Amino acid sequence: MSGARVLVVGGGLTAAALASRLSGLAVGVTCWDKAYQSGGRMTTKRHNNSQVDLGPQFITKKYGGEESIFKDLVDSGTIKPVRMINNDSNNFNFIDNDNETKGSTKPTPKEHKLNAVGVDDTIRMIYDDLGDGSDIACSLTYLVKPDNYVAVNGSDQIVDHFWKKSSVKLHTEHFLDGLDSVDKQWVASSSAQGKQETFDAVVFTQPVPQYINFHSPEGRPIGNYLDIMKENKKIFEQLEKVRYYSSFSLGIMYNETQTLALDWSVKYFPTNKILRYVCVDSVRRGRPLEPTSILVQTQRAWSEENLHLDKHQACPIILAELQAQVGDLPEPDHVFPHRWRYSQTAAPFSGSPGAVVLNDSPLLIGAGDSFAVSNVEGCLYSAKVAAGMIKRLLVAN
Ligand SMILES: Cc1cc2nc3c(=O)[nH]c(=O)nc-3n(C[C@H](O)[C@H](O)[C@H](O)COP(=O)(O)OP(=O)(O)OC[C@H]3O[C@@H](n4cnc5c(N)ncnc54)[C@H](O)[C@@H]3O)c2cc1C
Fold this sequence. Notes:
By secondary structure, this protein is of the alpha+beta class. Helices cover about 25% and strands about 30% of the residues.
């Protein structure tokens, strides 16, 4: 269908990578995100000259499917390869691979375990009969020695990289709050913007619970799309099984570079009740001379027990535990707390197919990390599968 209109819901990595894959096709792409800025969970907070990533910390290339995209991200200076020196089982420092090849005198790094950086090691990129991208899924190869990267100027820059490539304008503060099928088209509404538009296809990239749960605190869209999705019982049952972890993040920011009495840049707290991970974010990104920033992430179990707390209520509890564990830190100039109700997938859609057709006509596709591994590579894979579906099911027809 030449000239078909596609609405991509979301402004995170999956949406941006999908929009860039659709550029050049004979489809009109519109993107709506409810947030006031792009990035989704790849959120970077900035305050004066300081910045901190509240979401992804390490980007791991574990499968061989996206070599050219990773090369492009490295060549554009968006990401940089790093290795961690394991001081002991939970403390890490960094070297970057550039320095190593230039003859760094630093000690030989001991490779860290992938799981230590929160990357789900158990994911299977296996096509199953609900998917529609076997050719892509089968081309993925597990890399014996995965590469790790950091986003030097913030994880949101990875997402921006794809928005720029796509030439699609992301409409922020566009909450999709209504979606109805009328005469084989989707009528999508964003009431706050006074908008109602018609599309031939819609792609959801937000976490599945945000569009199937009745009591989602963010409010799922109203409309007949949910009843239509429920008609495919097999798929809907799988959607209901998608689960997410929750967590709180604190970004601690300084206006100047600080000298901290810490002999690590990253520390994991496997047995602490509240803290899970702390890093000196500016150092992690390879920017030790920037104004210092520190990131704190909480344990998933503690976060789930404390989801009733809003981010401002959780903040002093987390700060008190941080002080107990790492000692006094200089008084911060700014603290950004954030509550992630949906942080990373605990249980993705069965078989992790990348994307799934939720309705044939009008076309509705579910994409994002609910359908893949919950990391950068998984989102790139999801975007690839979803783009393939649009090409086959919309453009080719
Ligand atoms: C704390 C944390 C740590 C992480 N660590 C890592 C890591 O170290 N390495 C790694 O690779 N990955 C990590 N991840 C996972 C990674 O961030 C996600 O897999 C990825 O960002 C998901 O991108 P997405 O585009 O699929 O979804 P999202 O980024 O969630 O994008 C969905 C978008 O949809 C929007 N939206 C929702 N509902 C609506 C609506 N009704 N209307 C309009 N817009 C809507 C949201 O605002 C959001 O922007 C981490 C995530 C978190 C939270």
